[in-house]
UniProtKB/TrEMBL annotation:
<dbReference type="Pfam" id="PF00528">
    <property type="entry name" value="BPD_transp_1"/>
</dbReference>
<keyword id="KW-0813">Transport</keyword>
<feature type="transmembrane region" description="Helical">
    <location>
        <begin position="66"/>
        <end position="88"/>
    </location>
</feature>
<feature type="transmembrane region" description="Helical">
    <location>
        <begin position="228"/>
        <end position="250"/>
    </location>
</feature>
<keyword id="KW-1133">Transmembrane helix</keyword>
<feature type="transmembrane region" description="Helical">
    <location>
        <begin position="129"/>
        <end position="153"/>
    </location>
</feature>
<keyword id="KW-1003">Cell membrane</keyword>
<protein>
    <recommendedName>
        <fullName>ABC transmembrane type-1 domain-containing protein</fullName>
    </recommendedName>
</protein>
<dbReference type="InterPro" id="IPR035906">
    <property type="entry name" value="MetI-like_sf"/>
</dbReference>
<feature type="domain" description="ABC transmembrane type-1">
    <location>
        <begin position="62"/>
        <end position="251"/>
    </location>
</feature>
<keyword id="KW-0472">Membrane</keyword>
<dbReference type="GO" id="GO:0055085">
    <property type="term" value="P:transmembrane transport"/>
</dbReference>
<dbReference type="GO" id="GO:0005886">
    <property type="term" value="C:plasma membrane"/>
</dbReference>
<keyword id="KW-0997">Cell inner membrane</keyword>
<keyword id="KW-0812">Transmembrane</keyword>
<comment type="similarity">
    <text>Belongs to the binding-protein-dependent transport system permease family.</text>
</comment>
<dbReference type="InterPro" id="IPR000515">
    <property type="entry name" value="MetI-like"/>
</dbReference>
Amino acid sequence: MRLSWTGRIFMTLSGLVLLLPILVVAASALNGGRTMLFPPQDPTLSRFTEFFVSEPIWRTALGNSVIIALGSSALGVLFAWPAAYFLWKKASGLSKVIAGMLALPFAVPPIVFGVGLGFMWAFSIGLGTLWAGILSHAALFAALPLVTISIGLQSIDRAHLDAAATMGATEAVTFRTIILPQTIPYTISGFFFAMVLSFNEFIVMFFVSSSSYATVTLQIFNSLRNGFTPTMAVAAITFIAVSVTAFSLVARFGDLPRLMGADQSRT
């Protein structure tokens, strides 16, 4: 599809609106002092060294963010796969209820969900632990792999399933040779969507961490009492880099047009 001149101008302006704030933040990370200024003063890359190597507070926060993002997105996929499969296979009342329960936390305002989880973990031994943070984000973002996996299952050509049944393939063989290979891109896409949102999430983590540990978003909040520092800009660049990398992988190896609702050719 070719864009008109009006469309090209609109897309160019949209790109500039998105790109300019990123350039300002990226330049602010180069400040040599402790204050975030633009244009940067005494440009240096030492703030990147502080964030990734020499400052234990930021390094630990980054490690916690990575552990929670990867762990929760993997768990979210494990939660979502059976629900999406049985919803596609049988669409029974139970499978609809389970799928609805998985999707519900994503529809609830994060502060309500975070307060609820805070009370729940307070009555158990989970408040302030990393594993509680992983479970909380897995519950919050399981709706994303649920949606992408469901889209992948719906895209499977029924003729392939009928051919497998005609040739005497069992359900296990059909699942292993037809269903699973065709849904892997959608499963990976759901994993990356959940991972990016978990990496950037603040509100729920604020309640379930109970100040026992910090992720990057929480550490940015904690550091605000000292003003805006260039290290925060490095953290912001890290968020952008993770998001761009994940969505680029989804666009390259997944079925992004269909996931975005733009390709209805196989419905």
